[in-house]
Amino acid sequence: MERPVRKVVFPAAGLGTRFLPATKVLPKEMLVLVDRPIIQYGVEEAVQSGIDNVIFVTSRGKGIMEDHFDVAYELESVLERRGKTTLLEDLRSSRVNVASVRQAEPLGLGHAVAVAQPLVGDEPFAVVLPDDVIDATPPALRQMIDVFERVRGPVIAVERVPMEDVSSYGVVAIDHSELGPGVHRIVDLVEKPPRDKAPSNLAIIGRYILTPDIFPALQETASDRTGEIQLTNGMRRLLESRPLYACEIKGVRHDAGNKIGFLKATAYFALKRPEFADAFRRYLDALDKPVGTTTG
Ligand code: G1P
User: Fold this and answer.
1) Which residues in the chain land under pLDDT 50?
2) What integer pLDDT is reported at residue 111 of this predicted model?
3) Among candidates 262, 214, 219, 259, which has minimal Cα distance to 238?
4) Same domain for 271 and 152?
5) CB–CB of 230/108 below 8 Å?
6) Are residues 213 and 292 in the same domain?
7) Could you tell me if the CB of 120 is within 6 A of ligand 1?
8) Model-level pTM greater than 0.85?
Protein backbone atom coordinates (compact mmCIF):
# COMPACT_ATOMS: atom_id res chain seq x y z
CA MET A 1 0.00 0.00 0.00
CA GLU A 2 1.25 3.50 -0.86
CA ARG A 3 1.99 5.88 2.02
CA PRO A 4 0.07 9.20 2.32
CA VAL A 5 1.16 12.31 0.44
CA ARG A 6 2.81 14.62 3.00
CA LYS A 7 5.32 16.61 0.96
CA VAL A 8 5.19 18.92 -2.02
CA VAL A 9 8.05 19.98 -4.27
CA PHE A 10 8.02 23.43 -5.90
CA PRO A 11 10.54 23.67 -8.75
CA ALA A 12 11.44 27.36 -8.58
CA ALA A 13 14.97 27.70 -9.90
CA GLY A 14 14.14 29.35 -13.23
CA LEU A 15 15.64 32.68 -14.27
CA GLY A 16 12.29 34.27 -15.07
CA THR A 17 13.53 35.66 -18.38
CA ARG A 18 9.95 36.12 -19.61
CA PHE A 19 9.44 38.81 -16.97
CA LEU A 20 12.61 40.85 -17.30
CA PRO A 21 13.40 43.47 -16.15
CA ALA A 22 11.05 42.81 -13.18
CA THR A 23 12.83 39.55 -12.39
CA LYS A 24 16.39 40.83 -12.55
CA VAL A 25 16.52 40.79 -8.74
CA LEU A 26 13.04 39.63 -7.72
CA PRO A 27 12.27 35.92 -8.23
CA LYS A 28 9.34 35.55 -10.64
CA GLU A 29 7.59 33.38 -8.05
CA MET A 30 7.45 36.51 -5.85
CA LEU A 31 5.58 38.65 -8.39
CA VAL A 32 2.33 39.67 -6.79
CA LEU A 33 -1.17 38.67 -7.88
CA VAL A 34 -3.44 41.13 -6.03
CA ASP A 35 -1.84 40.85 -2.58
CA ARG A 36 0.11 37.63 -2.42
CA PRO A 37 3.06 36.33 -4.42
CA ILE A 38 2.40 33.73 -7.11
CA ILE A 39 4.11 31.01 -5.07
CA GLN A 40 1.74 31.56 -2.15
CA TYR A 41 -1.24 30.47 -4.26
CA GLY A 42 0.41 27.09 -4.76
CA VAL A 43 1.47 26.82 -1.12
CA GLU A 44 -2.06 27.63 0.08
CA GLU A 45 -3.44 25.05 -2.35
CA ALA A 46 -1.11 22.44 -0.82
CA VAL A 47 -2.02 23.37 2.75
CA GLN A 48 -5.73 23.27 1.92
CA SER A 49 -5.14 19.84 0.38
CA GLY A 50 -3.63 18.52 3.61
CA ILE A 51 0.08 18.89 2.76
CA ASP A 52 2.25 21.23 4.83
CA ASN A 53 5.80 20.08 4.18
CA VAL A 54 7.07 22.25 1.39
CA ILE A 55 10.30 21.72 -0.51
CA PHE A 56 11.56 24.57 -2.68
CA VAL A 57 14.02 23.76 -5.43
CA THR A 58 15.71 27.11 -5.85
CA SER A 59 18.75 28.82 -7.30
CA ARG A 60 20.95 31.75 -6.33
CA GLY A 61 19.07 34.87 -5.22
CA LYS A 62 15.81 33.15 -4.32
CA GLY A 63 16.25 33.28 -0.53
CA ILE A 64 13.35 35.69 -0.05
CA MET A 65 10.94 32.89 -0.94
CA GLU A 66 11.95 31.09 2.26
CA ASP A 67 11.81 34.33 4.25
CA HIS A 68 8.29 34.91 2.98
CA PHE A 69 7.04 31.71 4.61
CA ASP A 70 9.05 32.20 7.80
CA VAL A 71 7.44 33.57 10.98
CA ALA A 72 7.77 37.38 11.08
CA TYR A 73 7.85 37.92 14.85
CA GLU A 74 8.20 41.73 14.87
CA LEU A 75 5.44 42.17 12.30
CA GLU A 76 3.11 39.77 14.10
CA SER A 77 3.59 41.40 17.47
CA VAL A 78 2.92 44.87 16.02
CA LEU A 79 -0.27 43.61 14.33
CA GLU A 80 -1.30 41.92 17.58
CA ARG A 81 -0.81 45.10 19.60
CA ARG A 82 -2.80 47.08 17.06
CA GLY A 83 -5.63 44.51 17.10
CA LYS A 84 -5.30 43.74 13.36
CA THR A 85 -6.68 40.22 13.72
CA THR A 86 -7.81 39.68 10.12
CA LEU A 87 -4.40 40.62 8.75
CA LEU A 88 -2.75 38.44 11.37
CA GLU A 89 -4.91 35.44 10.52
CA ASP A 90 -4.19 35.90 6.83
CA LEU A 91 -0.48 36.06 7.59
CA ARG A 92 -0.58 32.92 9.74
CA SER A 93 -2.80 30.86 7.43
CA SER A 94 0.02 30.02 5.06
CA ARG A 95 2.55 28.86 7.66
CA VAL A 96 4.33 25.77 6.44
CA ASN A 97 7.48 23.79 7.10
CA VAL A 98 9.89 24.87 4.41
CA ALA A 99 13.00 23.03 3.33
CA SER A 100 14.97 24.01 0.31
CA VAL A 101 17.57 22.61 -1.99
CA ARG A 102 19.57 24.26 -4.75
CA GLN A 103 19.46 23.27 -8.38
CA ALA A 104 22.93 24.50 -9.23
CA GLU A 105 22.48 24.33 -13.01
CA PRO A 106 19.36 24.86 -15.14
CA LEU A 107 19.13 21.27 -16.38
CA GLY A 108 15.35 21.00 -16.69
CA LEU A 109 12.24 20.16 -14.71
CA GLY A 110 13.09 16.46 -14.40
CA HIS A 111 16.48 17.38 -12.97
CA ALA A 112 14.84 19.86 -10.54
CA VAL A 113 12.58 17.09 -9.21
CA ALA A 114 15.56 14.71 -8.97
CA VAL A 115 17.56 17.13 -6.79
CA ALA A 116 14.69 17.07 -4.26
CA GLN A 117 15.12 13.31 -3.75
CA PRO A 118 17.11 13.52 -0.47
CA LEU A 119 14.36 15.70 1.04
CA VAL A 120 11.47 13.64 -0.35
CA GLY A 121 12.83 10.25 0.67
CA ASP A 122 10.98 7.05 -0.01
CA GLU A 123 7.38 8.22 -0.09
CA PRO A 124 4.84 9.59 -2.57
CA PHE A 125 4.92 13.37 -3.06
CA ALA A 126 3.27 16.18 -4.97
CA VAL A 127 4.91 18.53 -7.46
CA VAL A 128 3.48 21.99 -8.07
CA LEU A 129 4.72 24.25 -10.86
CA PRO A 130 4.02 27.65 -9.30
CA ASP A 131 3.37 29.41 -12.65
CA ASP A 132 0.20 27.36 -13.02
CA VAL A 133 -2.22 29.01 -10.61
CA ILE A 134 -5.39 26.95 -10.24
CA ASP A 135 -8.58 28.16 -8.60
CA ALA A 136 -10.63 25.09 -7.71
CA THR A 137 -12.89 23.69 -4.99
CA PRO A 138 -11.77 21.21 -3.79
CA PRO A 139 -8.23 22.41 -4.54
CA ALA A 140 -6.53 20.77 -7.55
CA LEU A 141 -4.04 18.83 -5.40
CA ARG A 142 -6.86 17.53 -3.20
CA GLN A 143 -8.74 16.31 -6.29
CA MET A 144 -5.57 14.48 -7.35
CA ILE A 145 -4.79 12.97 -3.95
CA ASP A 146 -8.35 11.60 -3.82
CA VAL A 147 -7.67 9.87 -7.15
CA PHE A 148 -4.23 8.70 -5.97
CA GLU A 149 -5.78 7.07 -2.92
CA ARG A 150 -8.08 5.11 -5.22
CA VAL A 151 -5.78 4.14 -8.09
CA ARG A 152 -2.55 3.84 -6.02
CA GLY A 153 -0.32 5.12 -8.78
CA PRO A 154 1.11 8.41 -10.09
CA VAL A 155 -1.54 10.98 -11.05
CA ILE A 156 -0.90 13.79 -13.52
CA ALA A 157 -3.17 16.82 -13.88
CA VAL A 158 -4.36 17.48 -17.42
CA GLU A 159 -6.59 19.92 -19.25
CA ARG A 160 -7.93 19.99 -22.79
CA VAL A 161 -6.32 22.84 -24.71
CA PRO A 162 -6.83 24.11 -28.28
CA MET A 163 -4.82 21.96 -30.74
CA GLU A 164 -2.73 25.00 -31.77
CA ASP A 165 -1.40 25.27 -28.20
CA VAL A 166 -0.29 21.64 -27.64
CA SER A 167 3.34 22.36 -28.53
CA SER A 168 3.69 24.41 -25.31
CA TYR A 169 2.87 21.45 -23.09
CA GLY A 170 3.55 17.88 -22.19
CA VAL A 171 0.74 15.91 -23.84
CA VAL A 172 -0.72 12.56 -22.78
CA ALA A 173 -2.47 9.83 -24.73
CA ILE A 174 -5.12 7.92 -22.79
CA ASP A 175 -7.00 4.68 -23.38
CA HIS A 176 -10.79 4.52 -23.40
CA SER A 177 -11.20 3.47 -19.79
CA GLU A 178 -12.89 6.02 -17.55
CA LEU A 179 -11.81 5.21 -13.99
CA GLY A 180 -14.01 7.91 -12.49
CA PRO A 181 -15.09 11.30 -13.82
CA GLY A 182 -12.18 12.70 -15.82
CA VAL A 183 -9.74 9.98 -14.69
CA HIS A 184 -7.99 7.91 -17.36
CA ARG A 185 -5.12 5.50 -17.77
CA ILE A 186 -2.21 7.00 -19.64
CA VAL A 187 -0.76 5.07 -22.58
CA ASP A 188 1.87 7.59 -23.70
CA LEU A 189 3.38 10.99 -22.88
CA VAL A 190 5.19 13.40 -25.18
CA GLU A 191 6.90 16.64 -24.17
CA LYS A 192 5.94 19.64 -26.33
CA PRO A 193 5.06 17.76 -29.54
CA PRO A 194 4.47 19.67 -32.78
CA ARG A 195 0.76 19.93 -33.43
CA ASP A 196 0.76 17.20 -36.11
CA LYS A 197 2.58 14.75 -33.83
CA ALA A 198 0.47 15.35 -30.70
CA PRO A 199 -1.35 12.20 -29.56
CA SER A 200 -4.26 14.29 -28.18
CA ASN A 201 -5.05 17.74 -26.84
CA LEU A 202 -4.83 16.63 -23.20
CA ALA A 203 -2.10 18.93 -21.88
CA ILE A 204 -0.20 18.39 -18.65
CA ILE A 205 -0.78 21.30 -16.30
CA GLY A 206 1.65 21.85 -13.48
CA ARG A 207 0.45 19.38 -10.84
CA TYR A 208 1.72 15.85 -10.28
CA ILE A 209 1.38 13.19 -7.58
CA LEU A 210 4.45 11.01 -7.98
CA THR A 211 5.83 7.90 -6.35
CA PRO A 212 9.52 7.54 -5.37
CA ASP A 213 10.22 5.18 -8.29
CA ILE A 214 10.24 8.33 -10.45
CA PHE A 215 13.79 8.98 -9.14
CA PRO A 216 15.49 5.94 -10.72
CA ALA A 217 13.38 6.56 -13.85
CA LEU A 218 14.74 10.14 -14.03
CA GLN A 219 18.27 8.85 -13.61
CA GLU A 220 17.76 6.68 -16.68
CA THR A 221 16.29 9.56 -18.68
CA ALA A 222 18.55 11.17 -21.26
CA SER A 223 18.73 14.93 -21.75
CA ASP A 224 16.77 16.28 -24.69
CA ARG A 225 18.08 18.41 -27.59
CA THR A 226 18.21 21.47 -25.33
CA GLY A 227 20.33 19.65 -22.73
CA GLU A 228 17.45 19.40 -20.25
CA ILE A 229 16.05 16.36 -18.48
CA GLN A 230 12.29 16.53 -18.92
CA LEU A 231 9.93 15.28 -16.22
CA THR A 232 7.57 14.13 -18.98
CA ASN A 233 10.30 11.86 -20.37
CA GLY A 234 11.03 10.50 -16.89
CA MET A 235 7.36 9.65 -16.46
CA ARG A 236 7.36 8.03 -19.91
CA ARG A 237 10.17 5.81 -18.67
CA LEU A 238 8.21 5.02 -15.50
CA LEU A 239 5.21 4.03 -17.63
CA GLU A 240 7.24 1.02 -18.79
CA SER A 241 7.05 -0.42 -15.28
CA ARG A 242 3.75 0.77 -13.80
CA PRO A 243 0.45 2.40 -14.80
CA LEU A 244 0.13 6.19 -14.68
CA TYR A 245 -3.13 8.11 -14.51
CA ALA A 246 -4.39 11.42 -15.89
CA CYS A 247 -6.86 13.51 -13.93
CA GLU A 248 -8.81 16.33 -15.56
CA ILE A 249 -8.98 19.08 -12.96
CA LYS A 250 -12.29 20.79 -12.28
CA GLY A 251 -11.33 24.43 -11.86
CA VAL A 252 -9.86 27.47 -13.56
CA ARG A 253 -6.17 27.50 -14.45
CA HIS A 254 -4.04 30.52 -15.23
CA ASP A 255 -0.55 30.47 -16.67
CA ALA A 256 0.88 33.30 -14.60
CA GLY A 257 4.32 32.61 -16.08
CA ASN A 258 3.76 34.84 -19.10
CA LYS A 259 2.69 38.46 -19.18
CA ILE A 260 -0.79 38.13 -20.64
CA GLY A 261 -1.57 35.13 -18.43
CA PHE A 262 -0.32 37.10 -15.43
CA LEU A 263 -2.56 40.06 -16.30
CA LYS A 264 -5.58 37.79 -16.76
CA ALA A 265 -4.88 36.09 -13.43
CA THR A 266 -4.60 39.50 -11.74
CA ALA A 267 -8.01 40.55 -13.11
CA TYR A 268 -9.55 37.15 -12.27
CA PHE A 269 -8.42 37.14 -8.64
CA ALA A 270 -9.21 40.83 -8.17
CA LEU A 271 -12.76 40.27 -9.39
CA LYS A 272 -13.16 37.48 -6.80
CA ARG A 273 -12.41 39.85 -3.90
CA PRO A 274 -15.60 41.20 -2.35
CA GLU A 275 -13.85 44.28 -0.94
CA PHE A 276 -13.08 45.76 -4.35
CA ALA A 277 -14.68 43.54 -7.01
CA ASP A 278 -17.45 46.04 -7.82
CA ALA A 279 -15.15 49.04 -8.05
CA PHE A 280 -12.68 47.10 -10.20
CA ARG A 281 -15.40 45.82 -12.54
CA ARG A 282 -16.72 49.36 -13.02
CA TYR A 283 -13.19 50.46 -13.88
CA LEU A 284 -12.75 47.65 -16.44
CA ASP A 285 -16.16 48.37 -18.00
CA ALA A 286 -15.22 52.02 -18.35
CA LEU A 287 -11.96 51.04 -20.07
CA ASP A 288 -14.08 49.35 -22.74
CA LYS A 289 -15.61 52.65 -23.78
CA PRO A 290 -14.11 54.48 -26.77
CA VAL A 291 -10.86 56.31 -26.15
CA GLY A 292 -11.48 59.81 -24.81
CA THR A 293 -14.34 58.82 -22.52
CA THR A 294 -13.46 59.66 -18.93
CA THR A 295 -13.06 56.77 -16.53
CA GLY A 296 -14.14 57.07 -12.90
C1 G1P B 1 6.43 22.32 -18.05
C2 G1P B 1 6.41 20.84 -18.43
C3 G1P B 1 5.26 20.55 -19.38
C4 G1P B 1 3.94 21.03 -18.80
C5 G1P B 1 4.05 22.51 -18.39
C6 G1P B 1 2.80 22.94 -17.63
O7 G1P B 1 6.78 23.08 -19.18
O8 G1P B 1 7.66 20.49 -19.00
O9 G1P B 1 5.18 19.18 -19.64
O10 G1P B 1 2.91 20.84 -19.72
O11 G1P B 1 5.17 22.75 -17.54
O12 G1P B 1 2.85 24.29 -17.29
P13 G1P B 1 7.24 24.64 -19.09
O14 G1P B 1 5.96 25.43 -19.05
O15 G1P B 1 8.03 24.78 -17.82
O16 G1P B 1 8.02 24.90 -20.31
Assistant:
1) 296
2) 98
3) 214
4) no
5) yes
6) no
7) no
8) yes
